[in-house]
Amino acid sequence: SHKSPKDFFAPLAVGAPAPVREIPFRPSRAIHFFDPSNPKMVDKIPQMVGTVDVLLGNLEDAIKADNKLAAREGLVQIAQATAGLGGQSGPTQLWTRINALDSPWALDDLTTLVPAIGDKLDVIMVPKVQGAEDIHYVDRLLAQLEAKAGLTRPILIHAILETARGVANVEEICGASPRMQGLSLGPADLAADRKMKTTRVGGGHPGYLVREDAPRDAEGAYAYDADRFRFQQDLWHYTIAKMVDACATHGIYPYWGPFGDIKDTVACEDQFRNAFLLGCVGAWSLHPVQIEIANRVFSPSVEDIRHARRVVAAMGDGTGAVMLDGKMEDDASLKQCLVLVELADQLAAIDPKLKELYDG
Ligand code: 1VU
Ligand code: MG
């Protein structure tokens, strides 16, 4: 953007809250999606508060066109009626995913939700973001609505990376507004937009692989039909890594999105862990069984924390090089360890069970 740094942190509407200069880290291991127009799901929301870092009232895809209004109104009711949900005070953040900006619903989503529950809404997820212009539009509209509603805290924006153009513009999207909280990788829409040939929602594909060289027979001829190791590759590696770099550059947070094979909790865990290892802070949960997976995977293991703390202790003032268990540790590896220790401290502060594990 061609704004001066000073303008970047000026409110975009008279009376709107001042933009934040830093996006505070708040645990968001699982962003749990629910349909606010589905009574069975809504019933379960109050008891989920405190067990999941983020509850997200979904208004976009997966909500039937006929239910769009009921979902929007249902979300207002849930936000108003549920203690401990959203608005900094509670243990569980409240997010929403609004409809796409070119849909018939997005404008009413924003003009209804901000006045009614703007004080509870922590983050608004915007789908199908193509470039900075989409963020600028929502940014100004939110400022106007916040000013009108007398809100004192800016609502943050989270963009879904799920179009080829969005991926091409990922840097400018991350830097488009001080409201930018993070990005999620949306593997289903992204696959469709790119014309990838997988019909799965996240995860691998058995056809995307590399194969061991063919062995040679006694005469030195290649035996192409022999059994050869095949190594399945990760369809999402490039995009996750690109997203993580863009988010880290701009001081915002990257997330894996959905994993559609609800029953395959093993592969879901693999997908989440790949994202965790590459730098993501959380993932979406589409079904209650996925919350526990995300909470576990996006919390560092007790073994990693034990090791990291030993490195911290061995490194003293943090400079120089030492040997620990036959391995070199120095200023840089200390920083790697501090990433884990800081995350463990932040999670222990909100999760007594984890605190006990990490302290034990
Ligand atoms: O036991 P009950 O019948 O009272 O309740 C069911 C069910 O209603 C409930 N439940 C949920 N509760 C809260 N949040 C949820 N996300 C949720 N999902 C289900 O739990 C009880 C057991 O459910 P189930 O195992 O019988 O599962 P169902 O067949 O009812 O539902 C499965 C789906 C996948 C349809 C459901 O979980 C769902 O709609 N999840 C959310 C999907 C979503 O938000 N998709 C959009 C994000 S992904 C994307 O945009 C691109 C791919
Ligand atoms: Mg999508």
What share of residues is helical?
40-55%
Total of DSSP H or I helical runs spanning 4+ residues = 14
Which small-molecule ligands are present, each listed once?
Answer: propionyl Coenzyme A, magnesium ion
Mean pLDDT over the residues = 97
Termini separation comes to 48 Å
Classify the secondary structure makeup into a structural class: alpha/beta
The fraction of residues in strands falls at: 5-15%
Widest sheet, order of strands: 1-2-3-4-5-6-9-10
Major sheet details: 8 strands, parallel, barrel
- Give the uncertain stretches in residue-range form: none
- Rounded radius of gyration (Å): 22 Å
Question: How many distinct beta strands?
Answer: 12
Give, in order, the helices and strands.
Answer: HEHEHEHEHEHHEHEEHEHEHHEEHH
What overall form do the CA principal axes indicate? Answer: globular
